[in-house]
Amino acid sequence: MRANNQLLNYIDGEWRTASAADALEVVNPATAEVMARVPLSSASDVDAAARAANAALAGWRRTPPTERVQYLFRLKHLLEDHFEDLSRTITMECGKTLVESRGEMRRAIDNVEVACGIPTLMQGDVLEDVTSGIDELMIRQPVGVCAVIAPFNFPGMIPFWFLPYVIACGNTCIVKPSERVPLTMQKVFRLFEQIDLPRGVVNLVNGAKDTVDAILDHPIIQAISFVGSTAVAKYVYARAGANGKRVQAAGGAKNPMIVLPDADRESATRIMCESAFGCAGQRCLAGSLVVTVGDARRTFTEAVAEVATALQVGDGLDERTQMGPVITPQSKARIEGLIQKGADEGARVLVDGRHPVIPGYEHGNFVRPTILQDVNPAGEIANTEIFGPVLSLIHVSTIDDAIELVNSGRYGNMACLFTRDGAAARKFRYEAQAGNIGINIGVAAPMAFFPFSGWRDSFFGTLHGQARHAVEFFTQTKVVVERWG
Ligand code: NAD
User: Fold this and answer.
1) Based on the domain organization, do 186 and 293 belong to the same domain?
2) Average pLDDT, the chain
3) Terminus of the chain with fewer CB atoms < 10 Å: N or C?
4) Which pTM does this prediction carry?
5) What's the CATH code of the domain at 34?
6) Atom 38 of ligand 1 has which residue's CA nearest to it?
């Protein structure tokens, strides 16, 4: 990768220079090396992509689903062949460890595999004789040109929550990756080039806010799939909705992990730390609050601190690294500022990861694992998505207090419970207000054949990414009532 390498858009089956006035540097968060420049594509670039996608629509829709999935089979094999290179690219632009990047790419490929089931997934319903001699059919048809707008923290996986289903359902697509991590999708689109899709079926447009606004306002684009922070998700949902588009918009999170006194000490500690510090806490499913119930405070506080202190922090490309950097220097400064804010609000900084020195990586955006103890449940830290390796500990007396705490937060992406008690687990599953629930699991990430749920301020819309929800989102139902002779 070269620092002066200006990335291209992929529109209508060819690589094109964006008509952008500006570009941003793409920087490796561990080394501060500039790897490329990403153009901030203009409305006319978006327009060219939308027109190309629209022109491809009629032919692609008529391509039988059984043929459409043949392209996905080829893509799956190419993704496997380039698995290691794509994983390394994710690590270099996003910072996470190679193990985490490989896990991410695996989840991306899982979605290609599930979308290959479209000849079954897309089927409708028929009922004969709704009244005597009259039959009724419900069929699913593609919605048209769809756009996918992705965040920085999963440059490989998140576009695949949507993209394979978009095209398998007979739609055409525009992908707008995060401007901070555009390199993985550049490589993925080099693979798309090799599967010989008809021109215009998939398009890649780089950019940031103005590019997104052009997508949200473009009259040709019918459906928007967004993943990012809550403030932007709300904005995208409102603006695209006002323009008459269907929208699914996933937002931020603050995920509590409740630990009961009977939980297994060793495994629960390991799983909770993996959840809090994996991907340097930059996961929408990062467990960022541990709520100890009763005696669990005594058992788990020191155990969690011990594991956090021992984690090996460094460049994700080094196989020994257990936690990489955060995405930008601004992000590092914000996280360190929030740690101070927690202390100002009365929390004890049990493990302080601010301003670490990582030999050989002095310019990287590193924050070591940090633990704040006795965090004020009503304070800013307990309720703000820090999106960094910071775990807050809160103590309550009963499971009911813990569930009340879960349900009083603004987000609803994930809530987890650690226990050996089945009745407590059922109560939690039943009452906790979150779209993804983990029982003795710290990152309750739905597999590709389940929807990636999310409630309250973590999701705006009704149908989520992945599997059947994606198929329903990317198709419109048509009902036909028939009488013959
Ligand atoms: P972000 O909201 O800053 O950016 C997401 C996308 O929106 C990017 O493509 C960006 O270019 C665009 N964008 C940014 N600001 C915009 C604006 N003002 N107007 C229009 N478009 C804008 O999010 P991020 O920092 O890239 O990603 C981290 C966030 O994403 C976290 O809040 C995390 O929880 C969330 N996230 C949620 C899920 C989920 O499934 N709920 C999954 C992954 C990440």
Assistant:
1) no
2) 97
3) C
4) 0.98
5) 3.40.605.10
6) 284
